[in-house]
Amino acid sequence: MGLKGENIHQRYTPAEIVQILSLHGYGKEMDAALIARHIDTTLTNFCHSGTTAIHPDHTDLPGSTSAGLRDLILIQTRRMWADIMNGLLPPTHDHYLKMFHIHLCMGLIGQPREDAILYDEAQDSNPVSTAIIRLAHHARHIWVGDPWQAIYGFRGAKNALDGFSGTVMELTVTHRFGQPIVDWANYVLTWHPTPPTTPITTTRIDGCVRFDDEPDPKSTLITRTRAGLFMAALRQSQANRTMTIEGNINGHAALLRDLAALKLGRPQSIRTESLKRHRSWQELVTSAEYSASPDLKRASEVFSIIPPEHINDALRKISEGNKPAGEADLTLTTIHAMKGREADRISIGSDALSPSEATESHYDERPEEISEETNLLYVAMTRARNALTLPTQFERPFRSPRTTVEMPPDVYRIAKAAIDHSIENQDQKNIREALEQQGFSLLNRGPDLVLVDNSNRGIRLAELCLKPEILASKFPKYANSIP
Fold this sequence. Notes:
Layout: H1 14-21, H2 32-48, H3 67-85, H4 93-105, E1 116-119, H5 127-134, E2 140-143, E3 173-174, H6 179-189, E4 201-202, E5 208-211, E6 220-223, H7 226-238, E7 243-245, H8 250-263, H9 281-285, H10 288-291, H11 294-300, H12 311-321, E8 330-334, H13 335-338, E9 343-348, H14 355-358, H15 362-365, H16 367-381, E10 384-390, H17 409-419, H18 425-437, E11 440-445, E12 448-453, E13 463-465, H19 468-474
Parallel strand pairs: 1-2, 3-4, 5-10, 6-8, 6-9, 7-8, 9-10
Antiparallel strand pairs: 11-12, 12-13
C-alpha cells in the first residue's frame, strides 16, 4: 500500500469529522459533534471486525434512535471510509490494518509466505487480526494467550483462543512470584464465571501479601481507571509525596476542568465536545450519556474531595509533584498500561473490583462484565514479583470465621522452625511438603506465617497466625514447648 509515516493520521476528532463530512445542520435529533462521535465509533468497530463491509451492527446507537438517523450515520461512515480507501483522507493505524485485510481478501496482495506464525496475546485479539492470520492457510500456527488476562473487550477485542482447533498445551507454573501471591491470584479467579480448572502453581515460596489502604512506599500503584489514577495522584499530592505518573493525564485534567465549569454554571468555557450540548450540571447527570459512562461518574467523584472552584490548584499541585522515573516515592499507572510488565512491589488501587462487589447479584445478568473486571484484578495482582499490597476491604473475607484445628506435635515443631526463620529455602520447601502430608499448608500473610487447614478449600478461612503468643492461647498443651 506504500504508506509513509508522515501520511498516517493519529486519530480524527469529532470536530474534524464534522468539518470533513459537512455535518453542520444535522442537529435536529442529535447535535453534529455527537453524530461525528458515532461515525468515529462505527468506523472503529468496522476496522476491528473481521468483515469487509460496514453494516448496522457496527454502530453503538441507543435503541431509541430513529431509522433516519441510523441511516445517516451509516451513509456518512461509508462515505468517510471510501475517502480513506481512495487516498483522499490519510488513514490511522486502525484504518491501514483494515485496508490490508480487505486487500488480502480481494487478492490484491499476496498472502504471507512465512512457514510459521506466532500469535501472541491471542486472548485479546481484534477480529481483524485473527482474520488476517487465518488467511495464512499454509503456515504452522502457534497461538499463545491467557483467557483470564483478556482485558480489552471494551475495545471490541475477542478471545481468539476459543476458535483454535489445534493441540492445546496448558502452562500453569509461574516463576515471577511466590506462593502468597499465587494464593490470592487463584482465589480471585474463583469469582470468574468460568474459572480455570487447573490452578496456578509456582516454583517460589517467598513473597508477601499485605493489606493497607495506603500504597506501599516505593511501589507501583495500579488503578483500574484514569479517574482512579487521578484520585490517587490527588491523595499523594495532598500528603506532599512525590510520584511518577505514567501516561498522559492531560485529557482527564481537561475533562475535570470542563466538569468543574459546568458545576460552577459556566458552560460557555467548556471545550470537551461531548459536554458542550449540556447547559447545566443537572442536565448532564440526568442524561443517558452520564448514566452509561463510568468514566464521567468517576471523574465527578473528585468534587467530593476538591471543590470545583479549586480544581485548577489541585491540578497544579499534582503537576508539581510529578517527577521523572526513579526520582519519586511512588509510581502511578493503570492496569491496562501495566499489562505485559512487572515490578518488584505492587499496590492495588481502591477502584479495583472488591470481594464484596464480586458477589453482587447484578453480575449474574452481565457475566461478561464480571469476567473482565475479574481479569483486570488478576492482571494487576500478577504484575508483582515480591510484594503485593491490597486494600483492607480484601482482608475481610479472610478474617472470620476462623476454624480452630488441633495441631499435632510434629506439625507444631515444623511450623515453629519456620517461625524462627532459621531455615533455608530448601528446608522450607521440605517443611511445606511435610505439612501437606499432615493436611495443612503453610502460607505467607504479610509478615506472618499462616497455617491453613486444607479440608477447608477454596477461600481457605481456616487460618492460624503462627506467632508464639497465639499458639500458647490456642494450644495450651503445647505452651510449655514455646520458649
